[in-house]
Design goal:
The chain is an alpha/beta fold. It has helices at residues 24-37, 48-56, 58-65, 75-85, 94-108, 121-132, 151-164, 177-185, 200-204, 213-217, 221-228, 230-250; strands spanning 11-14, 17-20, 41-46, 69-72, 111-116, 137-142, 168-172, 193-196. The strands form 2 sheets. Strands 4-3-8-7-5-6 form a 6-stranded parallel β-sheet, sandwiched between helices. A two-stranded antiparallel sheet has the order 1-2. The radius of gyration is 17 Å and the shape is globular. The mean pLDDT is 91.
Length: 260
């Protein structure tokens, strides 16, 4: 049996979704403990989009609520986390989490596997991280097809990843696909930690520009991303964001206890 991944980190209920009220330091310390313990944990990096997907997708809600860590990536989740927990919550932003863990990994010798992104992107990401962090160990990189894998392909992929023996598997399939993938594959993969980081693959390889820091810190990154990809992201930001605000202000009935 794998070690128990339970932690004492506080979790708050946001529209029926349990988000950990943590800082980046908390996240890094917990992830390194899991690696050192050879645990079997997965981390959902959560935004408003994540929480809103959970409102109508029961499998997604279960995946996030059963995650060993559900980080507050979006600033609205940071603000609500502070309000509900009374803790000094800070943003645990996927691209920044990747950089911080890669920096730590050079010292600790942690091995990384990059899974996701378009053809060639995970390999490019691996090179970028190794150039930025000399000595970083990359166990592998793979871009899966956009279609669902067959049972045989899935089994072969799991064998390839396990044979590579990474400590951290970065999963860049986008929300909700990456959260659902981690929830299903967690029991099959031997790596101590899986982390779903969404757009980090494209940001760190230059496929997407990052919002200025002042926009990130003030909850305006959505506006920057919408300006970059309006046809793909209009529903997420122009429909989901206002609905999220209305639900929070309205005090949704399910807030008594977050649901798995």
């Amino acid at each position: 049996m794998p070690p128990n991944t339970n932690s004492t980190l506080p979790r708050v209920n946001i529209l029926g979704v349990g988000i950990h009220a943590i800082t980046m330091t908390d996240a890094l310390q917990q992830i390194t403990r899991w690696i050192d313990q050879q645990a079997r944990a997965y981390v959902s990096v959560c935004t408003v989009h994540t929480v809103m997907e959970c409102q109508h997708n029961q499998q997604m809600r279960q995946a996030v609520n059963q995650a060993d860590m559900a980080t507050p990536d979006g600033m609205p989740l940071v603000w609500l986390g502070r309000q509900k927990s009374g803790q000094p919550v800070s943003r645990v932003y996927g691209p920044d989490l990747m950089l911080a863990l890669c920096a730590l990994s050079v010292e600790h010798g942690y091995r990384h596997f990059f899974y996701g992104g378009a053809s060639g992107v995970p390999q490019q990401l691996a090179r970028t991280m190794q150039n930025r962090f000399p000595g970083l160990q990359v166990a592998g990189a793979y871009s899966p097809p956009f279609r669902p894998l067959t049972a045989a392909e899935d089994e072969q992929m799991i064998k390839i990843i396990n044979h590579a023996a990474p400590d951290i598997i970065w999963v860049g399939l986008g929300t909700p696909k990456q959260d659902l993938w981690m929830a299903v594959q967690r029991v099959k993969l031997t790596a101590p930690v899986l982390i779903g980081v969404g757009a980090a693959f494209n940001i760190h390889t230059g496929q997407l520009r990052q919002a200025p820091k002042w926009m990130q810190q003030n909850g305006l990154e959505w506006l920057f991303r919408l300006s970059q990809e309006p046809s793909r992201l209009w529903y997420r930001y122009l429909i989901y964001n206002p609905l999220f605000v209305l639900k929070v202000l309205g005090g949704v009935r399910h807030e008594a206890r977050y649901r798995s």
